[in-house]
């Protein structure tokens, strides 16, 4: 579903990604872990076609970036720590706007379905700026799944959420992943990543330093695997 | 798509729909908050009031400075609006939300141009009668209104592109006028000369050149912005 070969990203003289190779099979849930500045967000922005690679090959859902970016974006849902929602619009107006941008058929039915999925049906006519951070993040997930994408990218989705909101987000994420979607999530929260993901990749100094599936990790634990990968 | 065909439709047939979605969203959000509009309007009214008191001139001299005062007012207020319009997109990550849509990105540019132009024209429609009363000059001439429309299109066309660039920097409030004013000078000069021609009651042939230049600048600026917008918004 995602194939990345020898990806390099430079910002001026600074090289953030240094020949990164990465592959994700359909239906996999990959947790992309690493210290601050490792290049996780940059990598996700390239996968999302928000940033151009300096060198290398990137294929998402069978389409090549950056040449077939619009086709990739039609099959991609992105959630970041920012909600990507307009505070002066209601929840349903936000979703209606994005439905138009994605040219969705049966728009109103799909909006209702998504609002029910994220548990905001009873707040659909409230302005988003009156929502709590947790509710905004749930609506952000609703926005990202509106067009029923094959691939979901989550960039630190738990940032700024309290315990209750994080637990609710867990449930929504599990629902999203249960539909057979391919998911790549960056996170600093190892415990949450361990609960959700089926594979764990450690990004360090611009390359994938280590990778292990849930099955391979049974004999050890994610924390020690993570520490070992960064030490190597 | 996770369980079959993608719900999102091919981008080719979506251009007009995406443009109208961006315009609808901007107008709806502004109708609620009135942040951008009220800032532009109050600023414009303050400028013409200040000029009114600063320039204690006779009627004839007032007529000769009118086009300059008007366009200075529109340019300053327009910068305020352009900055605010893009800041709304940037602050909550909404610009990324727009860029993630499977549409030709120039649809986003045209949507923002149309909504920014709408805000600017509404402010101008309110400013003109106030100016007419304060300066005792009739500004409601079809030719002059056409020049104001053409000048505003050129200003907003290039301003929307540059505000998309400047909003991605920390110094966006300062950077936009620094980038915009040198680029938009030809539009402003042509607009001032053409407006002056109508206000002075000259023959059209005497100031046809600035009007033609204004049309040419509008086409060139919008065509260039259309071509480079995708590169401007992508890292």
Keywords:
A: 232 residues, alpha/beta, Rossmann fold, six-stranded mixed beta sheet, four-stranded antiparallel beta sheet, 35% helix, globular, B: 235 residues, 8 helices, 0% strand
What does this structure look like?
Chain A contains 8 helices and 10 strands. In chain A, the strands form 2 sheets. In chain A, strands 6-7-8-3-9-10 form a 6-stranded mixed β-sheet, sandwiched between helices. In chain A, strands 2-1-4-5 form a 4-stranded antiparallel β-sheet. Chain A has 232 residues and is of the alpha/beta class. Chain A has a domain at 1-75 and 155-162 and 182-232: Rossmann fold (3-Layer(aba) Sandwich). In chain A, a hairpin with a 2-residue loop joins strand 9 (199-204) and strand 10. Chain B is 80% helix and 0% strand. Chain B has one domain (16-233). By secondary structure, chain B is mainly alpha-helical. Chain B is built from 8 helices and no strands. In chain B, helix 2 packs parallel to helix 5 and helix 3 (59-91) runs antiparallel to helix 7. The chains are: A alpha/beta (232), B mainly alpha (235). Chains A and B meet through helix 2 and helix 3 of A and helix 1 and helix 4 of B.
Main β-sheet description of chain B: none
In sequence order, what are the helices and strands of chain A, one letter per element?
Answer: EEEHEEHEHHHEHEHEEH
> What percent of the residues of chain B sit in helical stretches (DSSP H or I)?
over 70%
- The strands making up the biggest β-sheet of chain A line up spatially as 6-7-8-3-9-10
**CATH domain topology of the domain at 1-75 and 155-162 and 182-232 in chain A:** Rossmann fold
Biggest chain-to-chain interface with counts: A-B, 44 and 38 residues
**Whole-angstrom Rg of chain B:** 19 Å
The CATH superfamily of the domain at 1-75 and 155-162 and 182-232 in chain A turns out to be P-loop containing nucleotide triphosphate hydrolases
Report the uncertain regions of chain A.
none
- The number of distinct β-strands of chain B equals 0
Main CATH class of the domain at 1-75 and 155-162 and 182-232 in chain A: Alpha Beta
Shape annotation of chain B: globular
């Amino acid at each position: 579903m995602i194939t990345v070969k020898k990806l390099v990203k430079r910002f001026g003289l600074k090289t953030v990604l240094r020949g990164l190779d990465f592959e994700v099979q359909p239906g996999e849930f990959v947790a992309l872990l690493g210290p601050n500045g490792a290049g996780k967000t940059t990598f996700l922005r390239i996968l999302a076609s928000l940033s151009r690679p300096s060198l290398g090959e990137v294929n998402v859902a069978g389409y090549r970036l950056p040449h077939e970016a619009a086709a990739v974006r039609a099959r991609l849902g992105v959630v970041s720590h920012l909600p990507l929602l307009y505070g002066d619009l209601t929840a349903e107006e936000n979703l209606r706007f994005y439905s138009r941008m994605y040219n969705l058929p049966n728009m109103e039915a799909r909006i209702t379905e998504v609002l029910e999925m994220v548990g905001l049906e009873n707040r659909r006519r409230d302005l988003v700026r009156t929502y709590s951070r947790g509710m905004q993040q749930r609506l952000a997930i609703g926005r990202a799944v509106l067009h029923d994408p094959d691939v979901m990218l989550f960039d630190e989705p738990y940032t700024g959420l309290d315990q209750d909101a994080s637990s609710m987000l867990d449930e929504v994420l599990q629902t999203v992943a249960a539909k057979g979607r391919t998911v790549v999530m960056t996170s600093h929260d190892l415990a949450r990543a361990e609960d959700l993901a089926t594979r764990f990749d450690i990004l360090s100094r611009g390359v994938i330093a280590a990778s292990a599936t849930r099955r391979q990790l049974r004999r050890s634990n994610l924390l020690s695997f993570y520490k070992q990968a960064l030490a190597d | 798509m996770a369980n079959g065909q993608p719900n999102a439709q091919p981008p080719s047939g979506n251009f007009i729909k995406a443009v109208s979605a961006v315009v609808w969203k901007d107008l709806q959000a502004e109708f609620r908050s009135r942040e951008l509009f009220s800032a532009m309007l109050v600023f414009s009214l303050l400028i013409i009031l200040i000029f009114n008191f600063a320039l204690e001139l006779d009627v004839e001299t007032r007529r000769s400075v009118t086009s300059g005062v008007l366009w200075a007012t529109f340019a300053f207020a327009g910068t305020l609006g352009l900055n605010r319009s893009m800041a709304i997109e940037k602050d909550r990550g909404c610009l990324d939300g727009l860029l993630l849509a499977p549409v030709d990105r120039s649809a986003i540019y045209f949507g923002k141009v149309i909504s920014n132009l709408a805000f600017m024209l509404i402010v101008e429609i309110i400013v003109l009668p106030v100016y007419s009363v304060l300066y005792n000059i009739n500004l409601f001439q079809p030719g002059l209104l056409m020049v104001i429309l053409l000048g505003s299109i050129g200003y907003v066309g290039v301003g929307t592109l540059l505000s998309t660039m400047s909003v991605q920097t920390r110094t966006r409030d300062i950077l936009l006028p620094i980038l915009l004013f040198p680029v938009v000078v030809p539009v402003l000069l042509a607009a001032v000369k053409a407006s002056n021609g109508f206000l002075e009651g000259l023959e059209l042939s005497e100031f046809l050149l600035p009007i033609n230049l204004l049309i040419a600048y509008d086409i060139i600026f919008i065509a260039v912005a259309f071509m480079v917008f995708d590169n401007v918004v992508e890292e």
